[in-house]
Design a protein that fits this description.
The chain is mostly beta strands and 255 residues long. The chain is 4% helix and 35% strand. It folds into two domains: 3-107, Sandwich (Immunoglobulin-like); 119-236, Ferric Hydroxamate Uptake Protein, Chain A, domain 1. Strands 1, 4, 6, 8 and 9 form a five-stranded mixed β-sheet that branches. It has a five-stranded mixed β-sheet with strand order 3-2-5-7-10, with no helix packed on it.
């Protein structure tokens, strides 16, 4: 399953330099995810570059350190599926009383300059805040630009089990960038979730199980192939070190 999720993992990379711009080879970089406090550590190469791949999306703190320099830590780094984050560090010489420098990465938006895709992401906060009557996470994609209801959709006929007609060829419910509904690729954690007979999803997970809804509205990157329309990926929630639960109810005022 890990290989299926590679397309939607996060990469954090950058360069370690001193205050004069000289590279610091051999510097240690540690990344820690906030939800479980699990961490990974790498060592910068001879040019001061480091790269940490295959990280799950989430909120991270990243710390760079080297002997003789004050450590620098960047916290509250929010990442989304498929993002490549460029995070450079400038270390200053340590003094007798020097302490680690802590900077909030949330103050500076992380812009991914390595990809040319067009799309959008519905993050955890929006999923928890937006009312969804159907309780289907796929309905959240209509809040993103370039998404519209398929005008020629026949999904109601596709679900009519008593009809003597065969399943219609085109039975999708949404269009990405004006494309046909049967041209979309729907995945869960990068795994195929397409019903080829009905041009829809095979399985719809509970919205409570979803941490992120991601759409890609073009196919310029080779790894997002299979469909000529767009890609919709549902990323499920991971575990954490805290016990928690949630519930919901519907209320309709009949007065």
């Amino acid at each position: 399953m890990c290989s299926a999720q590679d397309l939607d993992n996060v990469t954090i990379a950058g360069q370690i330099t001193d205050q004069n711009g000289a590279v610091i080879p051999g510097a240690t970089v540690t990344v820690t995810i906030a939800s479980t406090r699990a961490g990974r550590t790498v060592v910068a190469d001879g040019d001061g570059h480091y790269k940490i791949i295959q990280l799950e999306p989430g909120i991270y703190s990243v710390k760079a350190s080297f002997a003789g320099f004050a450590a620098e830590e960047k916290t509250d780094l929010k990442t989304v599926a498929g993002q490549n984050v460029q995070l450079d560090f400038t270390l200053r010489p340590a003094t007798v009383t020097a302490e680690a420098v802590i900077v909030s990465a949330a103050e500076t938006p992380q812009i991914d300059t390595t990809r040319t895709i067009v799309g959008g992401t519905v993050a955890t906060r929006e999923i928890e805040s937006l009312p969804v009557v159907s309780r289907s996470p796929l309905d959240l994609i209509f809040t993103l630009g370039g998404v519209s209801e398929e005008p020629l959709s026949t999904h109601d006929l596709a679900e009519d089990r008593t009809s003597s007609r065969g399943t219609p060829e085109e039975a999708g419910i949404f269009s990405l960038s004006g494309g046909t509904a049967y041209s979309n690729n729907i995945t869960i954690d990068g795994l195929d979730n397409n019903d080829d007979r009905a041009a829809r999803e095979r399985f719809t997970p509970s919205i409570e199980a979803i941490d992120e809804v991601q759409i890609i509205r073009n196919q310029f990157a080779a790894e997002y192939g299979r469909a000529s329309g767009g890609r919709v990926n549902l990323r499920t929630r991971g575990g954490s070190n805290k016990f928690h639960g949630r519930g919901y109810f519907f209320f309709r005022d009949e007065s």
